[in-house]
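User: Can you recover a sequence for this backbone? Please restate the input before giving your answer.

Assistant: Of course. Working from this structure:
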C-alpha cells in the first residue's frame, strides 16, 4: 500500500507531501489543476521515462519518493535476488538532475530502472482511460483466464520446463549449424591434419636440427681449431702437459726444504690430469667431426619443411604446430561424432516436448472450465453498472500441429458486444472508450478477487457514465477497496462521495507563479466540494442537501 508520496520540483509542483489511507482514496479538482501531474510523478518512481523539461524550477533537481507498506506482499525473494535490504516500509526514490540524468533508489540502494519498474509493477497497478488497450492484448486476456482457472502453480512449472526446452532447442540449433559447418570444412581439415601427421613433428626437433646444421656448416673450422688446441695441450714439441710436468718436478725437489710446497705440487698434478682429460675429449670431438653432405642436405630439407608449415599456419614453433594438429584432430572427431550428440539432444527435446504438451493441455482444460465463469461474472458486473445487454465471450482455440509457446497451446480472444442482437467481435472493433473503461473495471474487479493487487489507481475510469450508473461504479470501487488500497481520480460527485479519504487538487498563484497544491478535505469541506461538483461554483441549498445525502450525513 502507498502510505505517502513526496514530490519536489516537478511540473507545476514545487513541493507536495501526500499521505494516503487504506481503502478508497478520492482525488478531485478542476481539469488542469494537477491530478494527472501527481500520477506522472508517481510514474517516475515506477520506472517511467523522465525529462528535465518538466521541472518546476529549471535550476534544481527533481525528487520523487514513494513510501510503501509491503508487509505481507511476499516480496522477500525479490529483494534477495536483487541484493536489496527488505524493509516493511520500503522507499522508492527517483532523482532527475538538471542535465536530465536519472538515478533510482530502493531503500537508499541504487538500482537500475529495470529493477525499479519490476518492483513498481508489484506495488501499484495504474489504470487510466487511455490504458484500455491492455484489455485487448492476448497476454492480459490469458492472465485473467489463468487467474480464474487457478493455473498459477501449473504455469510456474510449465514455464520453467519451457525455458529449459528453449535452451536445449537453441543448443540443438547451434549443434546443427556446427555440424553443417564442420562437414563443409571436413576435407580441408583432413588435408591439414594429414599434412601435419605425416610431418611427424617433435616438440624440440627444430632447435636440435638447427644446432646440428650449424655444426655441419662450420665443420672444417671446428676440426682445424680442435686439432690446434689438442696440439697445444699435448702433441706439440712444447705443450701444456709437458710444461706442467716440468713445473711439478721442480717443485717436488723443494718439498724437503719447504713442506707446504707439497700441497701446491698436488694441485699441479691434478691440473695435469684435468688437462689430459680435456685434451682427450677435444681429440674425440675432433675425430668425430666431419662434414656429411648427405646429413647436411637431409637436415636442410627437414628444416625447410618445418619452416614452411610454420609459415603456412602462422606460428613460430613446433609446439604450436603440434597443438594445431591436436585441434584439427578434435575437429575431425567432433565432425564424426556430432551427429550422435545431435540425435541424443533431439531425443531429450522430444521427451520434454511431450511433457510440455501434456502440461499445456492440462492448463488449457482448466482455462476452458474458467471461461464461462469469467463471462458470467463480467456480464453480471456490467449489468450492474448500466450495460444490461453487454456480453463477453472468452474464445479459446487450441493451436494445431502441437505448437506451443511460453503461455501454452491456446490462442485467446475476448469477444464483446454492448448491445442486444449485435454480433460478438474483438474489443477494438466494437467497444467505445466508455464501454472499454467499464469492461476493464469489471475485469479488474474479478482479478482483485483472485490475486493481491496492493494498490490500484483509476484515472477517470468513470468517463462516459453518470447518474445511477455512476453510483454503481462507485459501489464496485468500494467493494475493491475492502481488499486493497484504491486511489481514483474522478469528476463525478457520486464517485467522490464513496471515498474513505478525499483529496482536492487545485492551483494557486503566488508572486506571479502558478503552483499545483493538494489538501485532504475535512467532512464539511467534502460537503462543499461535492455540492460544487453537483451544481457549479456557487451551489445552492439543494446541492448541499444532495451532497450530504451522497455522503450519508442526513
Amino acid at each position: 500500500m502507498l502510505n505517502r508520496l513526496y514530490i519536489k520540483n516537478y511540473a507545476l509542483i514545487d513541493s507536495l507531501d501526500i499521505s494516503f489511507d487504506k481503502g478508497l482514496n478520492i482525488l478531485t479538482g478542476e481539469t488542469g489543476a494537477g491530478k494527472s501531474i501527481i500520477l506522472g510523478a508517481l510514474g517516475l518512481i515506477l520506472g517511467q521515462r523522465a525529462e528535465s523539461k518538466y521541472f518546476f524550477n529549471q535550476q534544481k533537481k527533481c525528487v520523487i519518493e514513494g513510501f510503501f507498506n509491503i508487509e505481507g506482499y511476499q516480496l522477500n525473494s525479490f529483494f534477495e535476488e536483487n541484493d536489496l535490504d527488505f524493509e516493511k516500509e520500503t522507499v522508492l526514490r527517483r532523482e532527475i538532475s538538471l542535465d536530465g540524468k536519472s538515478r533510482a533508489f530502493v531503500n537508499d540502494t541504487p538500482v537500475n530502472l529495470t529493477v525499479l519498474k519490476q518492483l513498481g509493477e508489484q506495488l501499484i497497478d495504474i489504470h487510466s482511460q487511455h490504458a484500455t488497450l491492455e484489455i485487448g492484448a492476448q497476454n492480459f486476456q490469458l492472465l485473467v483466464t489463468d487467474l480464474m482457472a487457478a493455473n498459477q502453480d501449473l504455469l510456474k512449472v510449465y514455464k520453467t520446463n519451457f525455458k529449459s526446452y528453449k535452451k536445449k532447442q537453441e543448443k540443438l540449433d547451434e549443434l546443427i549449424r556446427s555440424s553443417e559447418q564442420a562437414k563443409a570444412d571436413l576435407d580441408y581439415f583432413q588435408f591439414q591434419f594429414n599434412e601435419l601427421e605425416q610431418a611427424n613433428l617433435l616438440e624440440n626437433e627444430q632447435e636440435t636440427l638447427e644446432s646440428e646444421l650449424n655444426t655441419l656448416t662450420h665443420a672444417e673450422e671446428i676440426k682445424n681449431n680442435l686439432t690446434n688446441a689438442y696440439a697445444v695441450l699435448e702433441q706439440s714439441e712444447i705443450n701444456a702437459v709437458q710444461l706442467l710436468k716440468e713445473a711439478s718436478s721442480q717443485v717436488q725437489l723443494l718439498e724437503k726444504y719447504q713442506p707446504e710446497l707439497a700441497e701446491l705440487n698436488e694441485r699441479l698434478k691434478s691440473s695435469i690430469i684435468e688437462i689430459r682429460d680435456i685434451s682427450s675429449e677435444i681429440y674425440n670431438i675432433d675425430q668425430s667431426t666431419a662434414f656429411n653432405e648427405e646429413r647436411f642436405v637431409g637436415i636442410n630439407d627437414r628444416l625447410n619443411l618445418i619452416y614452411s608449415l610454420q609459415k603456412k599456419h602462422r606460428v613460430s614453433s613446433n609446439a604450436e604446430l603440434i597443438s594445431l594438429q591436436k585441434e584439427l584432430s578434435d575437429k575431425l572427431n567432433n565432425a564424426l561424432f556430432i551427429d550422435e550428440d545431435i540425435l541424443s539432444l533431439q531425443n531429450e527435446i522430444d521427451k520434454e516436448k511431450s511433457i510440455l504438451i501434456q502440461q499445456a493441455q492440462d492448463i488449457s482444460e482448466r482455462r476452458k472450465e474458467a471461461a464461462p465463469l469469467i463471462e458470467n461474472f463480467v456480464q453480471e458486473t456490467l449489468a450492474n453498472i448500466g450495460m444490461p445487454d453487454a456480453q463477453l465471450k472468452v474464445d479459446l482455440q487450441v493451436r494445431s500441429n502441437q505448437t506451443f509457446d511460453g503461455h501454452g497451446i491456446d490462442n485467446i480472444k475476448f469477444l464483446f458486444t454492448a448491445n442486444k442482437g449485435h454480433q460478438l467481435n474483438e474489443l477494438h472493433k466494437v467497444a467505445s472508450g466508455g464501454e472499454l473503461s467499464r469492461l476493464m473495471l469489471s475485469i479488474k474487479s474479478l482479478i482483485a478477487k483472485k490475486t493481491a493487487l496492493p494498490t490500484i489507481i483509476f484515472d477517470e475510469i468513470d468517463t462516459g457514465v453518470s447518474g445511477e450508473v455512476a453510483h454503481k461504479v462507485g459501489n464496485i470501487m468500494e467493494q475493491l477497496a475492502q481488499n486493497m488500497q484504491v486511489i481514483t481520480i474522478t469528476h463525478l460527485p457520486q464517485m467522490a462521495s464513496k471515498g474513505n479519504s478525499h483529496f482536492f487538487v487545485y492551483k494557486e498563484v503566488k508572486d506571479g507563479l502558478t503552483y499545483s497544491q493538494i489538501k485532504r478535505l475535512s467532512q464539511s469541506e467534502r460537503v462543499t466540494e461535492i455540492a460544487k461538483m453537483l451544481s457549479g461554483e456557487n451551489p445552492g441549498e439543494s446541492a448541499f442537501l444532495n451532497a450530504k445525502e451522497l455522503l450519508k450525513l442526513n
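That completes the design. The mean pLDDT is 87.
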